[in-house]
Amino acid sequence: MRRRDFIKGVVGSASAWPIAARAQQQSTVPVVGVVIGGSLDASASGLTAFRDGLNEGGYVEGKDVTVEHHALEGHFDRLPALMDDLVRRRVAVIATPGSSAAAVAAKAATAIIPIAFAVGEDPVRLGLVTNLARPGGNATGVNFFVQEVLAKRLRLLHDLAPKAVRVAVLVNPTNPLVAQPTLRAVEEAAPAIGLQTQILNATTAAEIDAAFETIARERPDALFVAADAFFVSRRVQIVTLAARNGIPASYATGDTVAAGGLMSYGTDPADMYRQVGLYTSKILKGAKPADLPVTQLTKFAFVLNLQTARALGIEVPPAVLSIADEVIE
Q1: Is the distance from CB of 260 to CB of 308 less than 8 angstroms?
Q2: Could you give all domains of the chain from N- to C-terminal order, each with its CATH number?
Q3: 271: which of 34, 110, 146, 213 lies 20 to 30 Å off by Cα?
Q4: What is the pLDDT of residues 91-127, one digit of tens each?
């Protein structure tokens, strides 16, 4: 080899090495984009559970993985741009715990980047997977059966307010993947237990106030709040207004009952977040979403706030009290 060629080769290798080294160093810490429908504050316990799931799989945030949190705060119109950004930057995994809208948007944005989801509807019907046992694409995760338990949640509300005739149903129309199944399920179940329904829409905090102005004016007998992440993020506002109007209300999560709501019935959100974190860790280790079966969460909890019941003048029947999984005194 001629001396000139040898020196040129050494110089070329030396100049390329820092770039290659930096790229290798950056690639050793994968980035996970976590997209939630509500606010960071309202999802704090869930995000802690997500990190627990990552830890179970051998990943520590800030050390083995970088986790980016993206909170929509009910603004689902932000999803296309957000997903385009995550895909453009080629994050390692897109995780969408508790938001069907985010999961569907992620699936529409990429067929390559793995998606770890948790949805309350049938993921096959949503187009996220082709089969629960063999998802067959770039997405897998958890089905936590929100819609399937709506009828029972409505019955429990009626058990607490047996004289109720008209129930208001609060939904967020900008999140149709939750709003439409909620209305369908409640409107199908209501006649069987002697209830009529009244639909109230809210997409902002001001519209929640307006919905309760309607409640104050038209006096429905009970309130059924959809399992929407935006409503969870506004839970203090909602339970405060429900108390002010003296209306018994049913919610999707125990966090809302702990904040002063009357009752909730559904799966454990923390367990759902943890499972998504665990799936994310498996994918980071090299597992293909196509080969990871969708987990179905089948444990449900009925949470009851006796203090709120007393404030509303509700005498909880012993039969109802006996089936509560958690009672807040």
Answers
A1: yes
A2: 30-146+269-299 (3.40.50.2300), 147-266+301-328 (3.40.50.2300)
A3: 110
A4: 999 999 989 999 999 999 999 999 999 998 899 999 9
